Amino acid sequence: MMAGVAEDEEKWLAAGIAGLQQNAFYMHRAMDSNNLRDALKYSAQMLSELRTSKLSPHKYYELYMRAFDELRKVEIFFKEETQRGCSVVDLYELVQHAGNILPRLYLLCTVGSVYIKSKEAPAKDILKDLVEMCRGIQHPLRGLFLRSYLSQVSRDKLPDIGSEYEGDADTIMDAVEFVLQNFTEMNKLWVRMQHQGPAREKERREKERSELRDLVGKNLHVLSQIEGVDLDLYKETVLPRVLEQVVNCKDDIAQHYLMDCIIQVFPDEYHLQTLEILLDVFPQLQPSVDIKTVLSQLMERLSNYAALSAEALPEFLQVEAFSKLNNAIGKVIEAQADMPVFGAVTLYSSLLKFSLHVHPDRLDYADQVLGSCVKQLSGRGKIEDSKATKQIVALLSAPLEKYNNVVTALKLSNYPRVLEYLDNETNKVMASVVIQSVMKNNTRITTAEKVEALFELIKGLIKDLDGTAHDEVDEEDFKEEQNSVARLIQMLHNDDPEEMFKIISAVRKHILSGGSKRLPFTVPPLVFSSLKLVRQLQGQEENPFGDEAATTPKKIFQLLNQIIEALANIPVPDLALRLYLQCAEAANDCDLEPVAYEFFTQAYILYEEEISDSKAQITAIHLIIGTLQRMHVFGVENRDTLTHKATGYSAKLLKKPDQCRAVYACSHLFWVDDQDNMKDGERVLLCLKRALRIANAAQQMSNVTRGTTGSVTLFVEILNKYLYFFEKGNPQITVAAIQSLIEVITCEMQSDTSAADPTADAFFASTLRYIQFQKQKGGAAGEKYGPIKV
């Protein structure tokens, strides 16, 4: 059906163009022979093609443009006729004898242009006559194009200030009156199009009207170009008249487009000075008008004006722009009771951006906007409309982007109240935006009060909100979110120990209520922040003034014990054990033996009761040995107890090679270089001998199960330990013992049952080269290594 209509239109257009071209041909011939009567006759017939009602606006425009090109030639001919002695007044009368009104008016406008240029009559009189005469065409499409032609031929002939057609003092009003009258009539014709034809074609008519809107809007552009339209004239006459037409037409398409035109074509300073007049119109517009877009554009233009012109800022304060815009938005929302949440939030988002750009120092304005937004959202529960939630995120992101400082946003009391209306997923998005702002701008959160406020903003990431199911959460996203929270915790700092302790306590309260899934991510950064504070307090006299409330390392360690205990209960024993050992080392540096012993005890309990995986046990035992070796705070009894336990755990590992390595690692527990009271050569030797026995047992097991004795790697590793303690001066490690071990390894490697192992061979060869190097070095080392034969 549509295809058929399009084909018919093409035929009608082709026929119209053919008729127009044929008459244009005869018209040109008449003009060439200076035959005025025939030229008028054929030009009227040519213009009669524009009387068609069969074409859509798009096709009619094609026909009109061809006619327009011909009318330019007609105008030149009329001008030449006047130069040849024909009176322009007679010409003006003569064209009015054309048979049909539409061609008559086109010709009248063309002659009118020549008449004005001749200056034989005031421009204002001719323009007034033309605009009145055009009322003869009331068909919307034909009337719009006729008046568009009138506007086109007259725009450079208006009696404006500085124009060659300027008349007496009142001519500016005449020019304005002409344009306003033409605009009013064109708008009426444009609106009338909506009500012609059957209701089922409403969508097609709206599309056609949309194609024609620029014809109407050009009048407002012409008005804005008139030099004589100053602020007073705009305020007293132009704007009220245009707005009157906008309100009275009661057409949503026209109202939206014309309000947009007013905002775009007139200067920003005019908008600022007439803000109240302009804003009073918005509540009077049709409910279906997209007011949010138009108002947002107005606020955006005013924001840009303030940004580009610093001297304009006092004007904003003088006219109370913020207050007027805020009131207008309230009235618009009240007038449009069925406005969706998205619309209301968009308006407040634009107002907040306006406030932040124009009055960045007025936080109370920003808070007021957020408060108004809360008022609109109240009673609606969680917002589920995705467009609305997107706008709320934009609204809440604006202060962060403007101030580059979360601390400023924390001063806005209504900020967290708006957050409450976001669904859980968007709450997380907003929390991530807040954290990213802190990271990007390296913002320092320095008080417990600010930490409380900040964690209130990011609660979507630090605890399960109502209705959030774990199954719905993507594992990778969850890890990324929690890692960002961990980074945030590291950035919370204050040089004052008392305040820092309050910050740690505040964070602890929040993260411990975050659920077991989050603790492995959030506890470690909090533990290390606490240990950083311990290091800061290290060396200070323990509570010198007897103040019970004072922050001391002991007090922090008590807190740490509680925090890590929560982690151990999840359970993630590996992580908890590492943190206990870190705390033990910090307590060691603070010379707090009971505290360090308690942390080791907790680590041992975890090892015994929770860590069952053999690989995890190997890692844990080496961590325990490494940490214990660095401890200097323990007395003999406590150290013996802990050392005995560690060696016992080492000997109970599942695999013989793992047992062997853990046992020889324990030898370091009995020989610490910088502490003379911790050098027990006999126990070192016992550990190494025990490691050798385990290595032998491993060889025998390999021989029984595989038929080969396996690798000698363990023996070479033990040999290196012998050499280490030999160099350190352990009297129990003798040349004979080393020589014996070298011979054992050599013998094993040459044995028929020994499995080939290039790595072990290279390791042993390297060890022998080292001994040889030490022998050749001379001095004390050379003397010491001299007796060893390799």
TrEMBL record:
Its main location: cytoplasm. GO terms for biological process: intracellular protein transport; retrograde transport, endosome to Golgi. It is a peripheral membrane protein. Keywords: Cytoplasm, Endosome, Golgi apparatus, Membrane, Protein transport, Transport. One of its GO terms (cellular component) is Golgi apparatus. It holds the Pfam family Vps35. It is found in: Cytoplasm; Endosome membrane; Golgi apparatus, trans-Golgi network membrane; Prevacuolar compartment membrane. Belongs to the VPS35 family. Plays a role in vesicular protein sorting. This is Vacuolar protein sorting-associated protein 35. It comes from Trapa natans (Water chestnut).
